[in-house]
Each structure stands twice: as structure tokens, then as C-alpha cells.
Amino acid sequence: MPQRHSKNNNDLAFFTYDEKRKLGYGTQKERLGRDSIKPFDACCLCLKPLIDPMCCQKGHVFCKECILECLLAQKKDIQRKLTAHVAQQKQEKEEEEEKIMLQKARELDAFDQQNHGAVPQYSDKNYNKDKNGFHGANSVKTTSYEEEALRTMKAFWLPSATPEATAKVEAPPSTTTCPEGKENLKLKTLFPIYFTEDSSEDKKSKSLEKSYICPSCKVTLTNTLSLTALSSCGHVFCKKCADKFMAVDKVCLVCNKGCKERHLVPLQKGGTGFAGHDDHLLATDFKHLGSGSGLGLVRPAMKT
Q: What is the mean pLDDT of residues 147-155?
């Protein structure tokens, strides 16, 4: 019996546990740290702490400068695409008019050749031409057409003679979109939000970073809590206090400004993009070991 020198060097008929792990067999787990998750007080565009935070109606939070630059860049891009689209439509219209003029010129030329040529050109489909393809007075013109076609013919096997497909510019959308949620977003729908900073002495002495609390229950706000902002005044509460007090009393607990149910906007929490909010947990592929091959094959998951 051969001696086993290491856990990866053997002549067994099956794979060991360590070999299966290296081949990607089984469930792959990885613990994500704090650096892998976006903080709740970070901008969705620059990923830095918020400066003059603005929020959309879907709960995505941005810095005021970042979102204004984004919307301005989108408007410039829409204007550029619209100008290119209008220019393309104008060019297509001119080409169509040119084709109509050429068609009319060909019809007039054919009419002239038929009435003034040595041998009339028959339009009857049953009329049989001779073997040499003689067309009477039109034979010279037909030969010149063939020479021009051979000279301008595109050859697909020559890089210099391959035809080029014109890229059509589609009509751009007329409205700007949210860079995070991809829904229509206008500047007037954004509203400023205000976090309540923790001003206790022990918090200031322990950490240099700002920490925020709920103005109602004084709980420190983290990514584990669901937050709700009031679009009427902009104050941020935890979801528990917002549902318990604001939804019932119809008034903000900080500024005593009236609010309605539609003014409660849940803020989006920072996640990893796949399983951050337990949404869209659908596997797109899976790994399995081929029988006797020792290779980890990847196949798309079948829809059930």
C-alpha cells in the first residue's frame, strides 16, 4: 500500500474533503466585514459620509453636490443624444429624397432609351434574350453598369473593402433617472434629511466619528435598524417610532410639523448587492463534480 505523503497527494478512488473544497464543491461561505457594507450615512454615489444629504422618494440618500452633478450630467447627455437623433433623422430624410430623385431619373432614362434607342427594350417577362445578352443600344450601358458594380463591390474577405453598418441613434428618454433605483427622478422630488447627532460626553470622548440617534427613543442608528425619513420636514427616525407615533399622531416629534402617511419614506439600508436585503435570492449557476473527471463544472440553474 503506497504511503500517503500529504492530504493532496494520494491514489484514492474518491476525492478527499480538502480536494472537494478546492474544486468548489458544496456551499461556499464567506463572512463579510464592516468594510464590505455601505453605512447608512454614506452617499450612494461617492460612498463617503453625507454632506447636505438629499433623499429621493424611494429612500436613496445622496450628497447634495453629488446628486446635482449627476442630474446635470444626465441632462447634458440627453441633450447630446437628442441632437444626434435629430441630425440622423434629417440625414435619413435627405437620403430618402435623393433615392426618389434617382428613381425618377432612372425611369426617365429608361423611357428615353426605349423610345430613341436602336432596338427597343422590352419589358415583357416572356421575352427571351439571346445567349450573349445583347440588348441593342443598351448593351454598352449595361456593360458600363457591370464594370462600375465590380469596381464598387464590397468584398467581405478584405478588411479594407468590408461594408460598414451605420449605427442608429435611438431617441433618448426625456426624464432623468435615479442612479441607484433607476426610476424617474426630478430635482423637485428630492428633499433634505436631518440626522440627530449624539451629543453625549462619553460618545464624544470614545470616538472621533459622528454617531446618530433616533430623536424619539435615543437608540443609536446603525445598519441593523430600519430607518424612516419624513419628506415633510426631513427628520429621520427608526421605523418602530415612526410607525408608533408619526403614523398615529400625524405630527413630527421634533418640529411638531404635520405629516401624513405618504410622507413616511423608508431609507434604503446598505447591503452587499446580492443578499443585503434578502431580495432576489435566485441562484444563476451551480457547481458539481464530473464523474471520474476531477473537474468542477459550472452549469446554469434550471428554472422550476
A: 67
- Asked if residues 267 and 231 have their Cβ atoms less than 8 Å apart, the reply is no
What one-letter code names the amino acid at 34?
R
Any idea what DSSP says for residue 63? Answer: E
Kindly state the average pLDDT of the residues 290-296.
Answer: 48
Domains contained in the chain, CATH given: 21-37+279-303 (no CATH), 42-111+173-191 (no CATH), 194-199+210-270 (3.30.40.10)
Query: Does the pLDDT value for residue 276 go beyond 50?
Result: no
Distance CA 188, CA 57 (A): 11
Please give the single-letter amino acid code of residue 286.
Answer: F
Q: How many residues does the chain have?
A: 304
Report the alpha-carbon distance of residue 302 to residue 284 in Å, rounded: 9
What is the per-residue pLDDT for 183? Answer: 87
Tell me: pLDDT of 113 over 50.
yes
Report CA-CA distances (Å) from 1 to 12, 44, 290.
11, 62, 27
Q: Assess contact for 193 and 213: CB atoms under 8 A.
A: no
Which position has the grid cell 408619526? 246
The Cα-based distances of 170 to 84, 136, 173, 257 in angstroms read 9, 49, 9, 46
**Are 50 and 41 within 8 A, CB to CB?**
yes
pTM of the predicted model as reported, rounded to 2 decimal places: 0.60
Alpha carbon distance 55, 192 (integer Å):
6
CA triplet 140, 145, 151: central angle to 5 degrees?
130
**Mind listing the pLDDT tens digit for each residue in 172-205?**
888 999 988 888 999 899 999 999 988 876 655 4
Give the C-alpha distances (Å, rounded to integers) separating 48 from 38, 61, 63, 237: 9, 11, 9, 21
The answer to whether the CB of 233 falls within 8 A of the CB of 254 is yes
